[in-house]
Amino acid sequence: MGRSVALFVGTFTTLLAVINPLESLPIFLKLLAGQDSQAHRQVARRACFYTAGLIFFFLIFGTLVLKVFSVSLSMIRIVGGIILMRIGFSLFLPSPSEGVIHGGGGSGQPAGNIAFVPLAMPLMFGPGVLATIMGMSSLVKHPISDFVDLLGICLAILAAMLVTYVILAYAKELLGRIGPGGIDAATRIVGFFVAAIGMGLVFHGVFEALQDYKIIPMG
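RE: above sequence
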């Protein structure tokens, strides 16, 4: 049970940090400029639904994809950890040239067209989320015997999507209360922990790869 709780907390916090809905608030509002609150909630709901679908697809079929491309789980952990570390450092130490991603939205674009692109992909479901899901799913070696662990990951995904939906649905109110400075501070904090989680995945991936290639004895 303790492992399941740890997987839930780790998956939830990492997903929420990588998706970083607070950083997406200005982008979300720009894409929906001129739309009312009902349209905001509808697009936020669709975007989260699409993102959850993509996440669960790779959670279920990710191992099959790895077998097709002959990639080991240890390599996924290492690469995923490196990606998370890079994202974490970019959030913690943002480049001065980085800014808001300009989309083609606005009052003239139908709200439903932006729920999948660019909100679900690539803003919410990007390389960091993919690396997180593949890394966490690699920790569940036997889905049937480790069903509780898998359930913890699934619940963490749903919880992260729920929090993301609430933040996006009330983007205008949150941005007015938090302000750009608050969003910047929150982004730097979560970036630090994303980098730390990525380092942990790299460490476990390297250790497992050394065991796979029989460089060190199996534990």
